[in-house]
Amino acid sequence: MVLERGEVANSWRRERWDSLRLLTPNWQSRLPGYPYDGADPDGFMTMPEVIERIAGFAAASSAPVRTHTTVTSVRRADGGYRLATDRGELSCRCVVLASGAANTPIVPAVRAAVPAEISCLTPFEYRNPQQLSPGGVLVVGASATGAQLADEIQRSGRPVTLAVGEHVRLPRNYRGRDVLWWMEASGVWSQRYDEIDDIERARRLPSPQLVGTPEHANLDLNILRAAGVEIVGRLSAIRDGRALFSGGLANQFALADLKMNRLLGTFDDWARSRAPELEVGPPERFEPTRAPARPSLSLDLRSGAIRSILWATGFRPDYRWLDLPVLDRNGELRHDGGVVAEAPGMYAMGLPVLRRRKSTFIIGAEDDARDVVGHLLRYLAAGARGR
């Protein structure tokens, strides 16, 4: 049984902004036995199209989905688990936690010091620029979400200031192919979690600065600056109504550029090993990210120049309904490739680098599910032999 708190594809229906498109090309939105067969394999799905695709997969696979059922508690009972829901209790041998890692927006503690006259939103609340007050907008966070929203809001005619911390820069296209084609074809995306030196850091990496558009456009800090977005450093504090930003933007930019070029070098090495049958363009390198000559280190939030703040500062999972000692001190699930050792028969899906680098993308679901279900079946078989 699959339990869903709302409708199928609920988070895509309720927690996304209007113009959002997937970052992955349509052909990568394949699910087990359910490849993309539309007319635009290299395009990027809109939110209605994503909803239709997930709902279609649920119907095609005859998934036993029980919608509008909110789980309020999971606890050990009788060698398995007892689930309390708003529609009654259920018992089972195994539980798979497939609620993902983006249930709750992360808003830093400095939010409490924002002057009352400034409206604050998270990406879960934002729908389009028209809902914002007229005037300037401070976007905090420059991963995929922050960069996309800064671009959209700036285009609406509102002046935007973008506070940038650690980020991942990628071109949309490389050597004539989508960069995510390179991620899959070269094997980078399929790298297993137990082959990564610092798995905890890999799981904390922000999403790359990419956008899915019909024009296959690039989106990076150079492009945002050229469009008029003011780039400042990481928001470090708000004191007496002034937002304070860290220095060192040039170092942040140099580090992001260095990592991007290392990845492109990995693609180049792989392409050389496949030559001459591989049809791609010549190696490329991109203009370094340009740091402002004198970036602002503070901003008076009481001046009226900023009317809204959008907190694009990441997301975290919500496990308040897990009545089990399986979380670390940061509230993250302790697991080994999706296997929760402290709760036999409990598994996870859809978390960052769960079993592979592609785990949080639609394309990553099939391989991870195959591994997790394999372990689950062995667990059930061992229990049956024991009985």
List keywords for this structure.
single chain, 387 residues, alpha/beta, FAD/NAD(P)-binding domain, 2 domains, five-stranded parallel beta sheet, three-stranded antiparallel beta sheet, 8 helices, 19 strands, 25% helix, globular
Descriptive overview:
The protein is α/β, with parallel strands linked by helices and 387 residues long. The chain folds into two domains: 2-103 and 316-386, 3-Layer(bba) Sandwich (FAD/NAD(P)-binding domain); 104-315, FAD/NAD(P)-binding domain (3-Layer(bba) Sandwich), CATH 3.50.50.60. 25% of the residues lie in helices and 18% in strands. It contains eight helices and 19 strands. The strands form seven sheets. A five-stranded parallel β-sheet has the order 8-17-9-10-13. Helix 3 (144-155) links the parallel strand 9 (136-140) and strand 10. The model has no long low-confidence stretch (mean pLDDT 96).
Quickly describe the structure.
The protein has 387 residues and is of the alpha/beta class. The protein is 25% helix and 18% strand. It folds into 2 domains: 2-103 and 316-386, FAD/NAD(P)-binding domain (3-Layer(bba) Sandwich), CATH 3.50.50.60; 104-315, 3-Layer(bba) Sandwich (FAD/NAD(P)-binding domain).
Order of helices and strands: EHHEEEEEEEEHEEEHHHEEEHEEEEH
Structural domains: how many? 2
Q: Quaternary state, please?
A: single chain
Return the average pLDDT rounded to an integer: 96
Radius of gyration: 22 Å
Give the topology.
Layout: E1 2-3, H1 10-14, H2 47-60, E2 65-66, E3 71-77, E4 80-85, E5 88-92, E6 95-97, E7 104-105, E8 119-121, E9 136-140, H3 144-155, E10 160-163, E11 173-174, E12 177-178, H4 179-185, H5 199-204, H6 221-226, E13 230-232, E14 235-239, E15 242-245, H7 249-274, E16 298-300, E17 306-311, E18 315-316, E19 346-348, H8 365-386
Parallel strand pairs: 1-2, 6-19, 8-17, 9-10, 9-17, 10-13
Antiparallel strand pairs: 3-4, 4-5, 7-18, 11-12, 14-15, 15-16
